[in-house]
Every structure is written in structure tokens, then in C-alpha cells.
Amino acid sequence: MRIKLEKRPEPSTLMAFATPIASVLLTMAIGVVVFDALGIKGEKAVIDIFLTPLLSSYKWQDVAVKAAPLIIIALGLSIGNRAQVWNIGAEGQYIIGALAAAGVGIAAGGAGGGIIITLMILAGIAGGTAWAVLPAFLKTRLNVNEILSTLMLTYVALQVLGYLVGGPWKDPNGRNFPATAPLHADQTLPILFPGTTVHLGVAIALVLPFVFWLIMSRSVFGFQIRVVGSAPDAARHGGFDAKQTIWLSLLIGGAMAGLAGALEFAGALKAINLGFPSGYGFTAIIVSFLGRLNPIGCLIAGVVLAVTYVGGQVAQTTVHIPNSTAGIFQAMMLFFILASDILIRYRVRFVGSPKASALPAAGE
Amino acid sequence: MANEPMARLELKSITKRFPGVLANDQVSFSVQPGEIHALLGENGAGKSTLVKMIYGIMQPDGGEIRWNGERIVVANPKAARKLGIGMVFQHFSLFEAMTVLENIALGMDAKIPARELEARIKEVMTQYGLKLEPHRIVSTLSVGERQRIEIVRALLLNPKLLIMDEPTSVLTPQEVEQLFVVLRQLASEGCSILYISHKLHEIKALCHTATILRGGKLVDTCNPSVETSRSMAEKMIGGNLKTIEKAEGRKVGREKLIVNRLNMPARSHFGVSLKDITFTVREGEIFGIAGVAGNGQNALLLALSGETLTDDPGAITVDGAQLGRLTAKQRRLAGVSSVPEERNGHAAVPEFTLADNSVLTARDRLGMVKAGLIDHKAARTYAGEVISTFAVKALGPGSTAGSLSGGNLQKYIMGREIMQNPAVLVVSQPTWGVDAGAAAAIHQALVDLAASGSAIVVISQDLDELLSLCDTLAVINEGRLSPAMKVADADIEEIGLLMGGVHGDPAATANLHPEVAHAH
What is the value of pTM for the model shown? Predict the structure, then answer.
């Protein structure tokens, strides 16, 4: 008995849907086994991380607020990932986006209202985009690997953040903590449902996937991204410019990360301190792949990953496991989704030894 | 040979199945010592699968292989070599940056000291008249010389059976003759040769026996010296051969595509640069470019399609408009279409549907884009039209390009370009790996397009194809194009020498094409 991978004549649509679900389920199953082996109640931990946030309605707003930046960043990253342009530095673009929004807020002084908020959001988009310009320039001009340049710029962004919140933008009334002053109430994003924390950013995160879906499936730009990613030579043959694709996919990735940073700042946290970067930019990479680089998939996957964030906090109090456990689950999910990708184009067959099938009957 | 007591190799009811295909269906034949046995069939007939099983790369699902009368299982190529089976593949496995000697040493199962190996190589080379310089770097060698390395490598093992997979597809006519001399000498010494090909005149000239495969089944084992080329071809394709119908008295019109001193630097270290390419194609003319693979054909196609750009806008003109600096998209709008050699990943995206693949090159010319959005319905309609007009075997416009067989995908790609009615069409290897039926359809479509007034450039390694299809012919060698000649008064001997270029005998080519000889 041997296991054989066989190329499918057509990629399997069923598997394209089944593998992300299977990856989540496998992650949960392995989680139970591993935590049991560590002497922690595995079943309880997994239920708390994956199900409690969904079953208890008072956690929904947390999930929604956490899902919003993940979805928005993942939408941008999916474009790059499809074109095989690997932006690993969304975290840095997210930070710069938030700082740019904060800068506008500070510059506006006490002024607030729709125009200022819009300007803050636009500044966030511009900041994230600007942080992606350098990797795009280096990649197209000098063929510098964008994985390295985007990742390294994340650390530069952290330094910029540390400098600003510890220096020029430090809250004068903040007992010398390195943090910006809290936003004025009329500079924060409107709340969608009174009494909750669900802000305008959540609505944006719900609408954007459909906009991206339209762009990717219907527009020439979406076509270009898909061709460049699947077959660069064919893209050249079809008259698509490879450099333009690199520029656009990196800039869109940066813009979305910057937007997410601005929304998170103006909608959820309302101040920036050293703890502002919470890894959304990295987790969004998982969201992007779990969502199969599909905008609607990113919406669903963003919610799943947000659940693990919220659930991680739940499990912290109920079964006393560190918050970073959620990170382990997220990484496991990425591992499974990447590993199971092969099932879309190949099928597994169990075949007998060559002897068993030898000498088939005549006339076959 | 009928009185030979025992066959060297005997196949009995060999069957091999792949998902969805029966690659070999109960194939039986035998090869005698000293026999040159042709294995004849179209692409996809199952020839390669069969010899891969003999050489131990694959195992048959059913049937048996006998070697000198004994039933054997060839576990792997190493076991095959131990038995005395050697194979020369169509695609060589050589390291470009290493010398001939190093490449041969790497391919040996036994470790032999370099000096001893070199002595043995020299011995084999003098015995068979194979000219090779052991210390040359492979990247500086011609395709014919590279093949000689593979042959020497196989001969060092004193094979009893030598398998040659499509050995002449990349050789010039002169190199083919030299190869045949070697093979005949080998056979006279008792070595059996299994010669895979679809070139009938070669088989008639060389082989004692021919086994013809079609669709995985053995059709006939015959004596090629008794058969005619036509009778073997009809057994091979299982039907009557179609000949290209060229309208009587076609005439070419005014100058359409003019390429004037086109230069292009090499894209990589082992790439070929284009040097002063100059030619003219008129309305209704089919212009052929012959040449051995790797002499700049790819670079030329990319330069004409606009995938690489020249600095000189006037290097390429169509109807007087300068295209040299226009991008691929702009050139398509100006009426220049192209079909590159590689279907999967260059001419088409395998994982895309046929409809999406029509968007790839037809979107601008056929107005499939409105306000930045793709009109998917128009793309599906166009793909459907191409499928029906060119008799592409596909489920419909929604099938992925990768699910089509090579021949069908090629028909689709050719159809996609031809139905856009381009003013100039440049195609590379239009029938490479395509079965005879599809090849005939593609040739006919090209002739018809020319008849409608387009200028057509066909780049091909298949000289027979060019001679039957083209009006005018030039030869590319080392990135230089020979002067054009009328096919009607072309001399095959001269074409062969031009194809050989600097790699052939420089003295012989000197008076034909002086600048090439100087490059040596």
C-alpha cells in the first residue's frame, strides 16, 4: 500500500472551500491533544479560545472590533500575495498610518468633526502608502527582496513610534508615560451602536471586502494581479507591466494597513503608546491565506482570527494559559492551510503495490 | 534477422495507465541484436512512456519485459545501465558551466579516475568518429555537440541496447547524417538501437524495422524500406493525410513588416543576443525562420511581440509605423499578434479558463474592457467562437487551459490570435508537440490568414514544416539572420550549413555567410 499524489485535471473547488475549514478544525483537534499532554485541560482551552467568543453575545463587539483591522489589512495583503509580491511589513505600515492620523489630530488642536476625522483617515492611508514606497522602489530599481525590506521597515516604524510618543507627542499630563494624549471626543470615530465599542471602522471592514471582490473579479487591474501571480511570462505577453504590478500591489497593501492603523487609533484605542502595535499586521498574513486570498474569504477569516484573539484572553482567565497561546493556534492554522493547499491541485490516492495490479484482464 | 535465436529485448503485452489515459495498451514487439528498430508515432502515442519503462524510469502496470530471453524487472535507470541499456534523451541533462569531461564523469555510476576516463572517452570518440574536445565548457557547444556528449556517455558503458529519443529534432541535416553513420556502425557491431521518431524519411533511411504506435496501441510492425512514407504516416495518424491547400496564383502585396538592423542584448549569461536582424515580410507572405534551438529564436519573438523593447523605434515598422519602442499592448493595438513557443505559462495561463485566456491577449483589440471592467460575457463568447472555429476539444469556455491537451491548447492559442485578424502574426514553433491532425489545421489556418492579406512570420526548428508552409525563408544562427531566400529555389544543403553556422565547418560556411565565420 502506497500513498500517491495525483494531479487533478482541474483544480478542485470543493477543496478550495474545504481546506480552510479543515485547517481550523485540525488546529482545534491538535490543540486539545497538545494541551492535554501539557497537563492543561485541552478541551476547555480550545472551547474557550474558539467557541466562547462566538457563544457569548457580550464578546461579539470585541470580536467585531478586533476583526476590523485584520480584515482591512488582509484585503491589501491578498492583492500582493496573489501577485507574488510578499509584503511582510504591514505591521510597520499600520503603525505609520496610526501615527499619521495622530499627527493630524494633534495638528488640528481642539478642532474635531467630520472633516478632521476624514483628514485623519486620509492621513493614515497616506502614511501606510508612504511606508511601502521605499520597498517598491528598491524592488523595482535594484531588485531588493521585498520580504526583507518591508520587514525591516517595520522595526524602523517601531523606532519612529517610540521617538514620537516618548518625545514630541508625549502627553504633557501623562505622568511621563510614553503615550500620546487621548483623542478629543469629537476626533474619534462615531460609534455605530450606542453602548458598544463598535465604531465606524467595523462598517468599513464590512463594506471593503465587497469592493475588493468587485475589483479582483471584474476589473482589468484584478486580472493583471492574477496573471502576474500565476504566470509572469504570460503577463508580459499579455502586455502587463511587471514593475507597475509590484508598485501597485505594495502601495495598496501599505494603504490598507495605514487605513487600519488610523481606524484602530481613532476608533478603538484613541491614544498611541508603546503597546499600540499588537501584531495585527502579521496576523493579517494568516487571515489573507486562510481566506484563500479572496476578499470575501478574508472577511470570514478575519472574524475567525479575531475570535482566537478574544478567546485567548478568555482562556487566560479560565484555564490560566498565557495570552500568547492564541498566537500558537494562529500559527498552526497558517501551517495547515499552507500544507493543505496541495489538495486543491492534487488528490491523494492509496494504491496497492505494483504486483497487485499487474497483468490486468485482457480487453480492458 | 528472423533466424536470430533470441531477441535482445522483448516486450509482451506492456500496459501502462495514467489517470484518465491508457498510455500503453498491450504493446508487444521485440528488438534483435544489431537491429535498428524505429518506434514511430505521433506526440502522445505512448512512445516515451514505453521507453521510460524499458529504461526503468517507470514500471509497467501489466505485461513483461524480457532481456536476452529472461524475464526482468528494471527497477531503475541504474539497473537498466547495468543490464547494458543506454539512453540518450531528447532533453539533455548537462551542466552548462562545466566541461565535457566533468559532465561525463558526473553521469557515470562507477567512479573512474579522470585521466583514465579521458583516455576511454578519446578511445570511444576515435572508434566512432565523434568529434568532441573534453575540456570545452558545455555552454560554448552547439546542440549537436551536446548530444554527442550524451552519446559518448552512453557508449562508455558498452551498451547492448541504445535508446535514442527524438535525437534529430535539434540537429542540422549534416549533423543528422553524421549521427546516422555512428548509429549504423554501432548496429554493425551488434548493438541494438531503439530509435524514437516521427520523421518518416529518417526512419526509411536508417531503420530495419518500425513499430508504429497510435493512441497507446501497437498498430503495426513493418519494414520501412518496403513501406512508403505516406503509408507509414497514415498508419501513424490513422487516417488520410491532408495536404495544405494553397490557392493557385497567390501573390504577395506591398511591404508590411520591416525589421531593420534590430539589435538586442542577451537577457542572461547563457542567452543569445540579436545582431543586426534585417528582413521584410509582405502582405500575404509567410516568412519562415529556420534554425537550431537556442540560436536567438526566443529573443527574436520577444523583440517582435514587444515583450522586450529596443531603443531604436525604427528597427521594427509595420505599414510605415515605427513600433520599436511600443509596448506589447500598444503593438497589439497596432495589429501585431504573436504566439510564443511555450504554451503553458507564456502564451496561456494554465490555471485560467479559456475565456480568461482570451482576455489576456484579445481584450483591447476586441473591446472586452469597458471603463476598466472586463466584459466577461464578451470573453466567453469569443472563447466559444475560437473553440468551435478551430475545433478545439474542450468542454467549453470555462475549461482551464491546463486541462487541454498540448495540441488542443495550441489550436486554441493560434485561433485566439488568428481570429483577431492581425496585420502581422509572429508564431514560434506553431506545431511543436502537436499531433498531425491539429498541425494540418494550424498550417491551413496560417495559409488562410496570409491569403487575407496578413504578413506572417513562422519561427520553427522543423525544416520540413517551413519548406511546406513558407514562401520565403531565412536561417537564424547565433542571433544573426541570413539573407532571405525563396523557398522554391532554396537549397537544403545550404540551409543546413547556415543552420550549423559557426558550429559546423567554418570553412564550408565561409563562402556562404562570411560574417558568421568571422564570429568564430
Answer: 0.79
